[in-house]
Amino acid sequence: WDRSKPDPDDKCNKPILLMVPGVAGDSDNMYEIALMREVRAKFTVVILLLRGASDVPVTSGLVNHVGCWRDIKHAAEYLHQNYSKQQMGNRRTANQRKKKRELYVYGCSLGATMLGLYLAYEGREVKKIIDGACLYAPIWDFKKGDEFFYNSYGGYPDWIISMNSVKIIRS
């Protein structure tokens, strides 16, 4: 949460913006910080920290990759259930019931690709949970990206990611 975790019973009606970062997987990169500063007056901002980023422990054999779109699903469902969905005590019928707060999701780079997979795989179910999504600079051509990643700059991008992964796993 940007600043502090709100109480689910608060009367805040600002929409929630769930931000999914790129390959760095955390909230201390400039594009996340810049967007957060621009929107925090109108949105309650939540950043999904990816496995191994910002001291998030790697507790299983699963590390962060593009196929981890279910992480977004779990986060969106949690936010919907606890902060967005109108509670059942309301006397309105299901068709008349309004949401407490809107929920939007923004993904950048790797996070945008993960978000795209979530939207594609979950289809119509997503409409019940989120009110809008933005995919910024998603990775579409993995073959070209793979070739660039492994063959450019003498393999340095591959090496730096590998060393960081080893550091995370050892800690």
Detailed description of the structure:
This protein is α/β, with parallel strands linked by helices and 171 residues long. 37% of the residues lie in helices and 12% in strands. The chain has a 4-stranded parallel β-sheet with strand order 2-1-3-4, sandwiched between helices. The radius of gyration is 18 Å and the shape is globular. It starts with 15 loop residues before the first strand and ends with a helix.
Quick recap of the structure?
The chain is of the alpha/beta class and 171 residues long. Helices cover 37% and strands 12% of the residues. The protein is built from five helices and four strands, in the order βαβαβαβαα.
Shape: globular
Helix-strand pattern, N to C?
EHEHEHEHH
Strand percentage lies at 5-15%
Counted by DSSP, the helix tally is 5
Tell me how many strands there are. 4
Q: Tell me the radius of gyration.
A: 18 Å
Structural class: alpha/beta
| Beginning-to-end CA distance, first to last residue | 25 Å
